[in-house]
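hey can u check if this looks right to u? its 202 residues, i copy pasted from the old doc so theres a chance i mangled smth
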Amino acid sequence: DYNGSLGSGVTWVPGKFGQAIEFDGSDNPSSNVTFPAGTGDVGDKISLSVWVKETTTGGYLISNKSANANAGYMLYTAGSDTKVNWRGGGNTARNIDASPSWASGNWHHIVLTVNAGGTNNSKLYADGTYRTQKTIEAVTNGSANLTLGRNPAGGNRFIGALDDLRIYDKVLSATDVSAIYNAGSGDFITTIAGNSAIVKKA
């Protein structure tokens, strides 16, 4: 298991399931959750699943990249009221509409899968539905510690809540995504009241 540290701008609130972590976006040191080096490095076949409720448009949800073009992966909303964006282990960025309006403050389920390299190696699902597939660079081990709620390098702070984050070392199928969307609380991530979050290894 991996323990992440909650900044002072992150609090436990009622979530989509049980407790969620809410980010106030106050400043770089406070509004983030950081994990030890190597957390989330599961190889080039990976799936990220998370419930998102955004209250102010734009911000990084999950990233272990020290810069846009560097190794790792990132998932973010960044300045659009409807889109979610992602990168693998390079600078290529992709996006697709995932919410009618992030500003409405509703919960949305986002899943990104990346199947090594090659054409159309990434797929994005929103609220249990396949939305698109796009080509990105293959995911590589992160160049920064896994960080929730902002860019690991600072800035791009997310304001809102995250719940039921899961990191899989495999490519989920559409059936898998639908099952997670409909099943509720997760199997690989446990959150506890206090100043830490625990990532359980799959």
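The first helix runs from residue 174 to 183.
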